[in-house]
Amino acid sequence: MASISSLGIGSGLDLNGLLDQLRDAERGKLEPIAAQQQQQESRISALGSLQSAMTQFDDSVANLQNASLYESLSASGGGETLSTSVDASAQPGNYNVEVNGLATAGTLASQRIVAEPDQALTDAERTLTLEFANAPEGEPTSVDVTVAGGSTLGDIRDAINAKEGVGVTASVINDGEGSRLALMSSETGEAASVTGMTFETDFFVTDPAVTVSDPADAVEGVIDNGGQDAALSINGIAITSATNQVEEAIQGVTLDLQAEGSATLSVEQDTLKVREAVSGFVSSFNELKGTIGELTAYDAETGQAGELNGDRTVRTVESRLRSVLSGGVPGGEIGMLSEVGISLQRDGTLELDEDALSEQVSGNMAALGEFFAGGEATTGMAGRVGEALGQMLDDSGLVSRSIEGAEGRLERLGERYARMEQGVERTIDRYRTQFGQLDGMIAQMNQTSTYLTQQFANLDAQLNQGN
Fold first, then answer.
1. Nearest-angstrom CA–CA distance, 174 and 352
2. Residues 6+ away with beta carbon under 8 Å from 289
3. What is the tens place of the pLDDT at every residue in 295-320?
4. Locate the Flagellar hook-associated protein 2 C-terminal domain: which residues (predicted)?
5. CB 277 within 8 A of CB 380
6. 86 — phi, psi (to 5°)?
7. 10 Å Cβ neighbour count for 311?
8. Residue 131 CB coordination number (10 Å)
9. In this structure, how many other beta carbons lie within 10 angstroms of the beta carbon of residue 352?
10. How far apart are CA 368 and CA 350, in angstroms?
11. φ, ψ dihedrals at 245, nearest 5°
């Protein structure tokens, strides 16, 4: 039988088109599996959204579970004079603060040196010694800076600034008549002040074009402004500080001095943080409820349903949380969420009564903390909600198992799809072989038909000649 290189050549039939139609018909068997894969992918995505919303709610629950929240303090009343920060060791109290002077960094400027900016001031490598007469114990009282020969005033400045741990920042200042080498201590306070600059003999070149002003001249000579410590008093007690950040003068409170003046400082319970934590708890739960509503919605007009409509996992999550939130915390002064100003609405959301919460925050903080964070022998409301969420969110919990189950089904559907797809291709290959055989057979039959037709025509011609 003749070999056919392309279907349809031998028979003249559209066998390729017929083969494509058969392939489409065979692949139609894959559509139900593809639809199931899409369904499982949508469910996995929806469960991921549910898990994310539950995790965010769990974060807000953890804030309320922190017992230190109900003991946190804040400071107020510094005004323009000072700002404050408070840590856990602070104690409530009122303080009168007088800031009499801010800490400043010491400055020291050399005598005026009249020279061109690029004028060399050294004839050889020299040493510049910076002196710190009041350096704290253990700190160096002087620092040597090596200055290369032929250095300009700018080069000297750069050499100082390049010296690690030199304790000052150098600059060049021109007052219109000449330039000075100016130093500013890196830190504030009297002890950090630079008090002198000592040069080696012949530090400056003796070029007549270079004039060194008389150091004794009050205007042209060395200018020394020593650094000052901050001076303040707290409730009449005098305090000095090398910096404008005064720590532990008041236990657990850091004062950042900003201007001279008076301030009345109050350290008291930070009720704002508690109100924000409770409000965040309510808002986060309602966001979770909104996510669940979207995932389980059903539109009767279009017949469209959310990915988790009727899903057992969602029903269990809602039931567990509703049970915990509507339950109480026995043994404490506050036993129910409603006493805090939080009520469960008919649509399943929570509503917060700000006035009722403020009343508890202002006058009953200890009981509020015990209700949410619990005590030595009791688990608070936040702990109970957190435990329920943890059981559902951990690796072996309800939500994780649901996601793993959907992922497993998706994997099995993928394997089934691959097997059926291979089966379709094998079927199409079998059809292609059969069509090739058919094409070759028809081609051979056509050749035979043509041959016979020719033979009959020749025979007929011979018969006609005989007549």
1. 66
2. 347, 348, 349
3. 998 888 888 888 888 889 999 999 99
4. 227-447
5. no
6. -130, 140
7. 19
8. 16
9. 19
10. 18
11. -105, 105
**326-337 per-residue burial string, b: 16 or more CB within 10 A, e: under 16:** eeebeebebeeb
Cα–Cα distances in Å, from 246 out to 103, 251, 262? 10, 11, 16
The 10s digit of each residue's pLDDT in 38-76 is 888 888 898 999 999 999 999 999 999 988 888 878 888
How many helical (H) and strand (E) elements, i.e. helices and strands, does the chain have?
10, 21
Task: Look at strands 142-147 and 298-299 and give their pairing.
Answer: unpaired
265 within 8 A of 78, measured Cβ to Cβ: yes
Using alpha carbons only, what angle is made at residue 132 by residues 129 and 137, rounded to the nearest 5 degrees?
A: 130
Instruction: Tell which residue, 445, 409, 462, has the closest CA to residue 38.
Output: 409
Q: Do the beta carbons of residue 446 and residue 454 sit within 8 Å?
A: no
**Residue-wise burial string across 429-444, b where 16 or more C-beta atoms lie within 10 A, e elsewhere:** eebbeebbebbbebbe
**Which residue type is seen at 221?**
G
- Tokens at 348, concatenated: 């399943």
Residue 354 one-letter amino acid: E
Cβ atoms within 10 Å of 6's Cβ, excluding its own: 10
Question: 126-131 and 196-199 as β-strands: parallel, antiparallel, unpaired?
Answer: antiparallel
The neighbour count for residue 83, using CB atoms within 10 Å, is 14
Q: How far apart are CA 427 and CA 431, in angstroms?
A: 6
Could you tell me the pTM of the whole model? 0.59
Q: What's the CATH class of domain 107-225?
A: mainly beta
Residue ranges covered by each domain of the chain:
63-69+272-393, 73-102+230-269, 107-225
**Mean pLDDT of the region 129-134:** 76
- Asked whether 76 and 272 are in contact (CB, 8 A), the reply is no
- Give φ, ψ of 146 to 5 degrees: -85, 130
